[in-house]
Amino acid sequence: MGAHEIRMRLGGISRQRVYQITNRSNFPEPTADLAQGKIWLTGDVEAWIAQHRHT
Length: 55
Prior knowledge:
This protein is mainly alpha-helical. It has one domain (3-52). 47% of the residues lie in helices and 11% in strands. The chain has helices at residues 3-9, 15-22, 42-52, and strands at residues 32-34, 37-39. It has a two-stranded antiparallel sheet. Helix 1 crosses helix 2. This is AlpA family transcriptional regulator.
């Protein structure tokens, strides 16, 4: 899952806000850092969202 997918999963938040969230110490570590940006395992991101975001 890339930053765009995280943005959409969190309701279309800004790119700056995604950057802030993904740089938190409690956010999962990225699986890879590609030329297009960092990517995370979907399961890790979904688990973080379930624990830290209110629905």
